[in-house]
């Protein structure tokens, strides 16, 4: 007898598929409506790089006198330091108009695209900073927006029709 294999993932490359929305108002993180998503802004075309956006957990050691082995249980969870690097517009008509420092809203990651029935993650956020990356290198001007994650993100939420 052999263990039943899992169904292999349908692997994909994020550029051209993953969408990222800025949505100011979402009533229920676990069930955003289509009208709430449509009222947001699709940031995808201006994103140059992504960092963070992952929830991780801590463990709590639970040693006991009966064993030399130290077992553990799940502890607190938190989100990594998270940011998005955007392209900067020369006249300044860019993401700064949507997300100035201290703006509150939601970053919504639709990893498999905006397709009803697929999954998305909803991060309630506050903009910490909007920094201008300055370099002499041969690359486009960029802005780095850093976020604080203000509440537990809703993960693997079904995208509404």
What's the number of helices?
Answer: 1
What is the CATH domain class? Answer: Few Secondary Structures
Derived from helix and strand composition plus strand pairing, the structural class reads: mainly beta
Q: What is the helix content?
A: under 10%
First-residue to last-residue Cα separation: 42 Å
What characteristic shape results from the CA principal axes? globular
Rg for CA atoms: 19 Å
- The proportion of strand residues reads 35-45%
What is the domain tally? 1
The succession of helices and strands, N to C, reads EHEEEEEEEEE
Largest sheet: 8 strands, antiparallel
DSSP summary, beta strand count: 10
- Average pLDDT confidence is 96
Architecture per CATH nomenclature, i.e. the level-2 architecture:
Irregular
By CATH, the topology is: Factor Xa Inhibitor
Low-confidence stretches: none
Structural notes for this entry:
It is a single chain. This protein is mainly β and 161 residues long. The chain has a single domain (19-158), classed as Factor Xa Inhibitor, CATH 4.10.410. Helix content is 3%, strand content 43%. The protein has one helix and ten strands. The chain has one helix at residues 34-38; strands spanning 19-23, 41-42, 47-51, 55-62, 71-79, 82-87, 104-110, 119-133, 142-149, 154-158. The longest helix is centred in the N-terminal third of the chain and has 5 residues, at 34-38. It is globular and about 70 Å long. It starts with 18 loop residues before the first strand and ends with a strand.
């Amino acid at each position: 007898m052999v263990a039943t294999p899992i169904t292999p993932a349908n692997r994909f490359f994020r550029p051209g598929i993953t969408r990222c929305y800025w949505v100011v108002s979402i009533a229920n993180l676990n069930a955003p409506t289509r009208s709430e998503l449509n009222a947001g802004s699709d940031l995808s075309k201006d994103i140059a790089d992504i960092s963070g956006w992952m929830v991780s957990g801590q463990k709590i050691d639970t040693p006991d006198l009966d064993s030399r082995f130290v077992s553990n249980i799940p502890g607190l969870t938190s989100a990594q330091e998270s940011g998005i690097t955007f392209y900067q517009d020369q006249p300044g008509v860019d993401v700064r108009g949507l997300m100035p420092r201290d703006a509150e809203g939601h970053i919504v990651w639709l990893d498999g695209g905006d397709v009803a029935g697929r999954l998305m993650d909803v991060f309630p956020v506050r903009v910490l900073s909007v920094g201008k990356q300055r370099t002499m290198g041969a690359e486009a001007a960029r802005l780095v927006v850093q976020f604080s994650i203000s509440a537990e993100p809703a993960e693997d939420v079904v995208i509404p029709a």
